Amino acid sequence: MKPKKPLYKKYFGRDFTLAMIEIWWRGEVVNPKIWTDKKQPHLPYIIFENVGLVTNGFYNPEGVKWCEKIIMDRVKETGNFDFIKIPFCRELQKIKFIYEKQPILNRKDLIAFLEQCELIWPWFEAMWWVWEFRLYNKYKNILPKQYRKIMKLRDESQNFVPGAEATICKSLRKIYSSLGDLVMLLKIEEIIENNPPSRKVLNERARGYFFTNNQFFEGKIGVLWRKNLI
């Protein structure tokens, strides 16, 4: 009997650049993850769906449970969150000025910023599941002092994602000013190579796409069925 297909849960929907979506996916689905030597067994773990101006993020619930268990097993073993908190704070500090001030970057500096965001993201993912309310309510009484500190860190770093996205978007609009809103649909590889596709290609992407398994798919949900991804 074939294994049952997972029912994906939508965790968010908002206007993200394709560049940010690529960073998000690779940062959370890297196997093995930086904060554990175990591999995510529930794949595809994340499916991004772009519909017009909105990108929806769908997660495999079993994959989420797996992440939470790995994190909390380690926390109960060590008695603290330092294994994710310290590296997260260290890496975030390197670009804090940028995502808080949101300057317009030239292409070289933007590429460096994209690379640093991708380095931070695995730690950000681990922190996110610690901050997530279901996990917080489940474990807040185990290490109350630790949790208070970790929740304070959430407040201190809450501008990371919106600030990074704003910086990426503003910079792309300046670098590729002739493309207007279509800069939202540029792939990181195209930015690195300074080789944006034609407006025709970008307009086709604007009709909708999926991003999963580190691959870009144009079209409707059927394209993932045909690839046997869902």
**Helix vs. strand class:** alpha+beta
Most strands sheet = 5 strands, antiparallel
Helical amount among residues, as a percent range?
40-55%
String of helices and strands: EHEEHHHHHHHHHEEH
Summarize this structure briefly.
The protein has 230 residues and is of the alpha+beta class.
Describe it.
The chain is α+β, with helices and mostly antiparallel strands. Helices cover 55% and strands 11% of the residues. The protein has helices at residues 18-29, 61-78, 82-93, 96-101, 107-131, 133-139, 144-156, 160-175, 188-192, 199-205, 222-226; strands spanning 9-14, 46-51, 54-59, 209-212, 215-218. A 5-stranded antiparallel β-sheet has the order 1-3-2-4-5. Strand 2 (46-51) and strand 3 form a beta hairpin. Helix 3 packs antiparallel against helix 5 (107-131) and helix 5 packs antiparallel against helix 8 (160-175). The two termini are 17 Å apart. The mean pLDDT is 88.
Question: Helices and strands in order, then pairings?
Answer:
Elements: E1 9-14, H1 18-29, E2 46-51, E3 54-59, H2 61-78, H3 82-93, H4 96-101, H5 107-131, H6 133-139, H7 144-156, H8 160-175, H9 188-192, H10 199-205, E4 209-212, E5 215-218, H11 222-226
Antiparallel strand pairs: 1-3, 2-3, 2-4, 4-5
Helix pairs in contact: 1-5, 3-5, 5-8
